[in-house]
Amino acid sequence: MSSIVVMLMTSICGVVLSDYVWVHLCCGGLMGFIWIQSDWLGHDSGHYQIMSSCGYNRFAQVLTGISIAWWKWNHNAHQIACNGLEFDLDLQHMPFFAMSSSLFSSLRSYFYERKMNFDAVTRFLVSYQHWTFYPVMCLARRGGTRKKLTRVIARGKI
Ligand SMILES: [Zn+2]
């Protein structure tokens, strides 16, 4: 976790102290790397693996930005039915991505409790998923944050 703090400080100092565009671009790339690393730390703390106690792991989740309620809701479903197309939400990204050709005939998502149709819009978007992957993933973090906030506000049964 200390390496993330060092990288974060390096990125912030690079942006604040430099006027060079390349320094800012490198700091942006470093910040993206920091986000990925902090998500994995959040994941591992959700499994109570990085600290010595549950309380410390929960504190680490707060630092990494992972909502434990959201994480349990999603990740338990993923772990219970790992790689099951109809149950594992980590494989259900239509209309943007299709993780298997089995999805070309639509999908019944038991996690989202709805049918994900492979319609004309989905067919179009999936046919370009090799180009849209990175732009969509840039926005996915924002969507994840919205889902986490919704989960906290809704206070639903977990
Ligand atoms: Zn996991």
What is the multimeric organization of the chains shown?
Answer: single chain
Estimate the mean pLDDT confidence: 85
What structural class is derived from the secondary structure elements?
mainly alpha
Radius of gyration: 18 Å
Which regions contain 5 or more consecutive residues with pLDDT less than 50?
none
Number of domains: 2
| Helix proportion range | 55-70%
Plain-language structure description:
The chain is mainly alpha-helical and 158 residues long. The protein has 2 domains: 1-65, no CATH class; 67-158, no CATH class. The protein has helices spanning 2-17, 21-46, 54-64, 68-80, 120-127, 129-154; strands at 92-93, 97-98, 107-109, 114-116. The longest helix has 26 residues, at 21-46. The protein is flat, with a radius of gyration of 18 Å. The mean pLDDT is 85. The site of zinc ion (ZN) has 3 residues, from loops. Zinc ion (ZN) binds at residues 43, 47, 75.
Give the secondary structure arrangement, pairings included.
Blueprint: H1 2-17, H2 21-46, H3 54-64, H4 68-80, E1 92-93, E2 97-98, E3 107-109, E4 114-116, H5 120-127, H6 129-154
Antiparallel strand pairs: 1-2, 3-4
Bound molecules: zinc ion.
The site of zinc ion has 3 residues, from loops.
